[in-house]
Specification:
By secondary structure, the protein is α/β, with parallel strands linked by helices. The chain contains 8 helices and 9 strands. Helix 1 crosses helix 7 and helix 4 packs parallel to helix 5. The protein binds NADPH dihydro-nicotinamide-adenine-dinucleotide phosphate. The site of NADPH dihydro-nicotinamide-adenine-dinucleotide phosphate (NDP) has 29 residues, from helix 1. NADPH dihydro-nicotinamide-adenine-dinucleotide phosphate binds next to helix 1. Belongs to the short-chain dehydrogenases/reductases (SDR) family.
């Protein structure tokens, strides 16, 4: 029986992962800004779900939630840094406040949660940290520079983290979903920077296409949750796991593009030593 701590558990991936863990017989500390949204899960799995209030941008509350989880259950086996939201805007359209707020949500919050659980996982000699990144955390495209920057930051931190904590028996899994049917693209969640007419051609279509995809995305969050559990249970857990055919196609194209660009400029790269 594992103990999970999942952020953003009220909706989408967070909720799907919580449900899959509970179905498997595990215990879940489900953290949400609106814990009342988890009342049905608490009722359905008596004694196995703690719904706790947590805004992941509130660093003081992060320490308290981790301490409570350990007090209640004596351990934390899996931390899922899932809470997040989308932001559409050209780099020139995206303000400093918007960038800093999203870094708080996608980077500083997950970093603080990771720091808070690691002493317990090291003591246990086991554990896993799941970072919900995005295919936009592997590569980027016009209109998502700010969003990608926050996910790239999380991925960079996590790649180093994986090497540092492997000797303690702790796994790190970075998940890179494509478009999944969650509340992500809905009006309540998706952020949009103020538009400049100059970027109508490059970013304009995304401003309407992304909200237009709401409820029609190909990805099934329940299947994503099952894939995450399968990867965590594997003897060789991957560092990065793209999810969805769109993500698989785009990550493959990005890898091939990077390889081709490197090959085209390899001579120049190698020609700069003293
Ligand atoms: P949802 O909007 O369905 O869920 C997002 C969750 O994050 C909600 O529970 C929301 O809570 C929570 N949240 C937002 N801000 C905060 C905060 N400050 N503190 C605590 N919780 C917060 O979207 P998804 O399930 O899709 O998103 C989960 C993760 O998946 C995100 O990190 C996102 O970037 C990533 N992702 C999603 C993709 C998709 O297509 N769906 C694609 C790639 C990545 P509340 O209900 O209170 O708003």
């Amino acid at each position: 029986m594992k103990v999970w701590l999942i952020t953003g558990a009220s909706s989408g991936f967070g909720r799907a992962i919580a449900e899959a863990a509970l179905e498997a017989g595990d215990t879940v500390v489900a953290a949400a800004r609106r814990p009342e949204a988890l009342d049905d899960l608490v009722a359905a799995y008596p004694g196995r779900v703690n719904a706790v209030r947590l805004d992941v941008t509130d660093q003081a509350r992060i320490s308290a939630v981790v301490a409570e989880a350990v007090l209640w259950h004596g351990r934390i086996d899996v931390l899922v840094n899932n809470a997040g939201r989308g932001l559409v805007g050209a780099v020139e359209e995206t303000g400093d406040r918007e960038l800093r707020d999203l870094m708080d949500l996608h980077f500083f919050g997950p970093a603080a949660l990771t720091r808070a659980v690691l002493p317990h996982m090291r003591r246990q000699g086991s554990g896993a940290v799941v970072q919900m990144s995005s295919m936009g955390g592997r590569f980027s495209f016009a209109g998502v520079g700010g969003y990608s920057a926050t996910k790239f930051a999380l991925e960079g931190l996590s790649e180093a983290l994986a090497a540092e904590v492997a000797p303690f028996g702790i796994k790190v899994l970075v998940v890179e979903p494509g478009a999944f049917r969650t509340a992500f693209a809905g009006e309540r969640a998706l952020l949009q920077s103020a538009a400049l007419p100059e970027y109508e051609a490059s970013v304009g279509p995304l401003r309407s296409d992304l909200p237009g995809s709401d409820g029609k995305q190909p990805g099934d969050p329940a299947k994503a949750a099952a894939a995450i559990i399968r990867a965590l249970d594997a003897a060789e857990t991957p560092l990065r796991l793209p999810l969805g055919n769109d993500a698989a196609d785009a990550v493959a194209a990005s890898l091939e593009g990077a390889r081709a660009e490197f090959a085209a400029w390899e001579d120049v790269a190698r020609g700069t030593d003293f």
